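Question (not urgent): is this output format expected?
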Amino acid sequence: MTKLNQRQELFCQNIFTGMTATDAAIKAGYSPKFARENCPKLLQNTTIQERLRELNAPVIARVRATKEAKLEKLEEIYGHEPLPETITARDRILAISEHNKMEGDYAPEKHAIIQETIIRFVIGKGYERNKQ
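Got this back:
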């Protein structure tokens, strides 16, 4: 565990609960003037950054575990041979699609409707124009 003074530890705990840096500093016992002027310095402090990483580590581990479990389930659905009656071909295709989205295999898309023309933008790949 990192070595912080009491106010620094309270600051980190407050940041971890979702407070803004200024509010976290004030609640930790720093003066409002100090908090407004020095929060960027507090956040750049390597000891404080290390403590915030320590506080976030269990949360990050849970998120990763949850994502891995979801990916495994999707792989089970689309990779199961032979197909059980409960998993249809459509289910497999949807599972592959979701798996690819979670892994970042698709470029982000933006959609816009202008009058009666639908324009689909695929970032990094130009655009397609479809008329209705």
